[in-house]
């Protein structure tokens, strides 16, 4: 994670247009984590993350900024919606489940890191297992000449297996029989343990059983990788590393936090449990210990990023204690026509590039004139103004509608080059966008 704030922002610029303030704030927050880990232990404990509150309409890049960084830097990340939680005692998810989700994500992340570190050992295990099925074992009393011939055959078969020449052959392998699974990382640990005990009762003598299945060599490679991982990886070490990673590097993105704010203007119509959810959320954001089935997790150094549109409420409608736990606030800009155009043309793996790649699979070359791209951006912006503003997500609905017929008939245009110009865009989208009632159902 040794990236400077400028390098982090530069990376984000490849995928997200604009929103410089938000990028800068998150870049500094992540860099401060790196700086903190370089300090003496007693000072590390004193430095807590500066949690962030993002304010902006849907589709302007709030989640994407955080998710993109977490994925690139291999950080445990979960996105939750504040409106899905209820006050303790009411029906619904409890707020601590977000921490259990984070640890589950960290387990997967660390396990993949260990798999990569042990990739050669895992591949060797798989090759050995498959060769055992392809070549009958040599009798123990075989002569030296037979042993030499067998070894040569084994090496040739091994080389062909690695090169994929044997992928279509069918072999019979043994895989663990499916067991009853009651696993749910969102359950409180005491309930999870109880369910685990029940599962063991029902699966005594079952989990150890193997079932035989005939599969292709290619399929066997994937099935046996899981078996190899279970046998070769130290799951206890993975668990310990994951708990540490969740505590020190985890990011929890709490979306729709404005939905649990109690606005003074509409307090008479508010759900009475909203303030309760805020108070249940407070100790987790402040720093507490949450028990999970993998072990206790301290939330003191987890970075919390909250986000909301705040159309019907404002940040000051949150309880004061919770407001104080999100000292960094940044407002994201709405997307105008020019920004939507840049999203289509300047982002890495943009929506237009994605559709061009999809059509290439059918042997069709798809070309967009610049005037057509500007028209798409204009229609998306107009639709956002007339209907609900869903930001860059509107581009998906607009482009999908624009190319729907061509996509359906793509096999008829194999080997052709199709050019999308402004006239084509106007013909397909003009009437829909102008007709507000029609646009509601299509865009």
UniProtKB/TrEMBL annotation:
An example Gene Ontology molecular-function term = peptidase activity
Domain AAA+ ATPase: where?
Answer: 48-332
Residues spanning the membrane:
none
Question: In what residue span(s) does the Clp ATPase C-terminal domain sit?
Answer: 335-434
Coiled-coil regions listed in the entry: none
Q: How does it assemble?
A: A double ring-shaped homohexamer of HslV is capped on each side by a ring-shaped HslU homohexamer. The assembly of the HslU/HslV complex is dependent on binding of ATP.
Question: What is the documented function of this protein?
Answer: ATPase subunit of a proteasome-like degradation complex; this subunit has chaperone activity. The binding of ATP and its subsequent hydrolysis by HslU are essential for unfolding of protein substrates subsequently hydrolyzed by HslV. HslU recognizes the N-terminal part of its protein substrates and unfolds these before they are guided to HslV for hydrolysis.
**HAMAP family xref list:** HslU (MF_00249)
What this protein is called in its record is: ATP-dependent protease ATPase subunit HslU
């Amino acid at each position: 994670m040794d990236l400077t704030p400028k390098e982090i922002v530069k990376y984000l610029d490849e995928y997200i247009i604009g929103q410089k303030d938000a990028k800068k704030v998150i870049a500094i927050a992540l860099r401060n984590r790196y700086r903190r880990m370089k300090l003496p232990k007693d000072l590390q404990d004193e430095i807590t993350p500066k949690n962030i509150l993002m304010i902006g309409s849907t589709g302007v890049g709030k989640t994407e900024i955080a998710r993109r960084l977490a994925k690139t830097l291999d950080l445990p990340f979960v996105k939750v919606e504040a409106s899905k939680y209820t006050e303790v005692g009411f029906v619904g998810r409890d707020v601590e489940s977000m921490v259990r989700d984070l640890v589950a994500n960290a387990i997967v992340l660390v396990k993949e890191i260990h798999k990569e570190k042990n990739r050669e050992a895992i591949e060797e295990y798989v090759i050995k297992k498959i060769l055992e099925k392809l070549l009958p074992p040599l009798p123990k009393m075989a002569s030296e000449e037979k042993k030499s011939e067998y070894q040569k055959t084994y090496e040739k078969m091994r080389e062909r297996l690695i090169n994929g020449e044997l992928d279509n052959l069918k072999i019979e392998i043994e895989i663990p029989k499916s067991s009853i699974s009651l696993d749910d990382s969102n359950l409180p640990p005491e309930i999870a343990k109880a369910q685990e005990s029940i599962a063991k009762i029902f699966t005594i003598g079952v989990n150890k059983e193997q079932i035989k299945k005939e599969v292709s060599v290619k399929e066997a490679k994937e099935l046996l990788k899981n078996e190899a991982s279970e046998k070769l990886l130290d799951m206890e070490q993975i668990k310990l590393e994951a708990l540490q990673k969740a505590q020190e590097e985890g990011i929890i993105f709490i979306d729709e936090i404005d939905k649990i704010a109690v606005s003074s203007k509409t307090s008479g119509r508010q759900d009475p449990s909203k303030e309760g959810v805020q108070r249940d959320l407070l100790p987790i954001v402040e720093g507490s210990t949450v028990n999970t089935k993998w072990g206790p997790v301290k939330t003191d150094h987890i970075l919390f990023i909250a986000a909301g549109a705040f159309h019907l409420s404002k940040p000051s409608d949150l309880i004061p204690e919770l407001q104080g736990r999100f000292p960094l606030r940044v407002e994201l800009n709405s997307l105008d026509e020019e920004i939507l155009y840049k999203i289509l043309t300047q982002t890495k793996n943009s929506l237009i590039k994605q559709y061009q790649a999809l059509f290439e699979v059918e042997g069709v070359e798809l070309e967009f004139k610049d005037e057509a791209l500007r028209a798409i951006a204009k229609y998306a912006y107009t639709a956002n103004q007339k209907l609900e503003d869903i930001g860059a997500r509107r581009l998906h609905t607009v482009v999908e509608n624009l190319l729907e017929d061509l996509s359906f008939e793509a096999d008829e245009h194999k080997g052709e080059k199709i050019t999308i110009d402004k006239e084509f865009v106007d013909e397909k989208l003009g009437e829909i966008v102008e007709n507000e009632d029609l646009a509601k159902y299509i865009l």
